[in-house]
Amino acid sequence: MKLKMNIAVFAGSFDPFTLGHYDIALRAASLFDEVVVLVASNAAKQSLFSVEARVRLAKTALHSVDRIRVESFDGLTVSFMQSIGSRFLVRGLRNALDFESERSIAYNNKKLNSEIDTVFLASAPEHFAVSSSVVRELLSYERELDEFVPKSIKETLLLEWRNLQC
Description:
It is a single chain. By secondary structure, the chain is α/β, with parallel strands linked by helices. The chain has helices at residues 19-29, 51-62, 77-84, 96-112, 132-140, 151-165, and strands at 7-12, 34-40, 68-73, 88-93, 117-122. It has one domain (7-165): HUPs (Rossmann fold, 3-Layer(aba) Sandwich), CATH 3.40.50.
């Protein structure tokens, strides 16, 4: 009998990819057979970096991690999940405000597809204050990023930022 793979999707705008995202992706990879980091277009958000740049950054950060792949999708996350046979959506939580927001999203996803289960992973304490918006602000003031983004993407992120400034 062939066992069905448990594929999880870790979706977000990842604008840009942070140490918090990296940590959640690694932990999810230890729980599932495969994790797809889905760089999503979010109609409600104005992204700083292009989808292509965000995919490059996530792929660079995660290139050596088994069982993780990075993709992009322009549509509903539940539609993407259905297309790859995934039932699990991974979401990272930094605080109670994140939980309230994510719980509503999980409810709506369940209404759209009753097969989907959302798995919440609490942020590691050292990443509670790490967010993409903080990284964008640090970039704008040319501040140090070492405690906020994976070392493997720091130079690429700075290059992408400089390209936006031209």
